[in-house]
């Protein structure tokens, strides 16, 4: 058996404080190493099926439902009372081609069920739909159908074949008709489908009389513009953040200052009236005063970001610095003239910033400064991050490097070039 998690987290602490907690949708975090080794599934109690197996086959459907239940129980260990309609990762990583389709109605139905079951007590729901991630929902097949989204079989889900009533949302045909009538491209219909799912949640809260004091947060884990997903460019870092809380948040209010996703946990704790243990470390700040209109000034003068071999700082005044530093073993290979993997196998003088060569290929192709060691941008005048000022404004570069060093030196035993104390890499 797998060991239970040893560390507390947001849902487990809320759970201990009397909240009913729920998890619906995509995980991509829990036991990913197991998921990636289907040849070892049976050792962990999972059942296998063929890559092109038909979910309508009773034996295949049985295996998929068994595996879904296995993941439900495993994710529950992380502090959730309710786990349903889950995808343990991206759809293709279910290792079955017919399952590689989006079904937001299936996940939304579970979210609505959780709300209904929890209406008489405080609750916390984490809901991660698979849209708009790949498989690209706007892709058409030879017949012109959106094979991964609106024209996929609505019975195909992460637990095999499920027949369910989805009347709480417009049908997919109604969605396509609406988009056409409003003059939008049919390729954007998946966005309207997502809107309908959020609308179903809002309608449920309204119907149960819970909307007034329920906080609804809509956000994303990363952006995708200009293949920024695996970079620290604005195309990857900037994400939507919409909060609905009728009792406290004034409709139409905005906040123009820096915030970060690490602010989510302290904000939720503060709004829920839950005080984490003294030794529970959080890097962010509560945005509760911002949401309630008590604070209009910046809560951060600067924020930190990292991915792969790169680190960045962004200031409230609009300056941004990105540094690329390689661990010593990688740097020695660079100096020795070794080449590094490229998409489709070709060698490169420098490694991509992340391990995924497909993402590295596209990110480097769409961002001309991708491999540059030091990058300085004035986002006020250059929001597209095209003009690297690192060699043009040495004084500002030094300020930003000192700021990055202050952030990096708060981490234990995580060396990053000259920015951290002398520890081995």
Task: Furnish the topology, listing elements before pairings.
Elements (H helix, E strand, L loop, with lengths): L9 H7 L3 E7 L5 H4 L5 H4 L13 H19 L5 E6 L16 H15 L4 E6 L27 E2 L2 E2 L10 H10 L7 H19 L8 E4 L14 H4 L3 E4 L19 H9 L15 H4 L10 E6 L2 E6 L3 E6 L3 H8 L21 H10 L7 E5 L15 H15 L17
Terminal CA distance reads 34 Å
Shape: globular
Rg (C-alpha, Å): 23 Å
SSE order: HEHHHEHEEEHHEHEHHEEEHHEH
Low-confidence spans: none
SS strand fraction: 5-15%
Overall helicity: 25-40%
DSSP helical segment count? 13
Give me the count of strands.
11
Mean pLDDT: 95
What structural category characterises the helix and strand content? alpha+beta
Description:
- The structure is a single chain.
- This protein has 425 residues and is an alpha+beta fold.
- It is 30% helix and 13% strand.
- The strands form four sheets. Strands 8-9-10-11 form a four-stranded antiparallel sheet, with helices on one face.
- Helix 5 runs parallel beside helix 7 and helix 6 packs across helix 7.
- The relative contact order is 0.08.
In brief:
With 425 residues, the chain is α+β, with helices and mostly antiparallel strands. The chain is 30% helix and 13% strand. The protein is built from 13 helices and eleven strands.
What labels would you give this structure?
alpha+beta, three-stranded parallel sheet, 425 residues, four-stranded antiparallel sheet
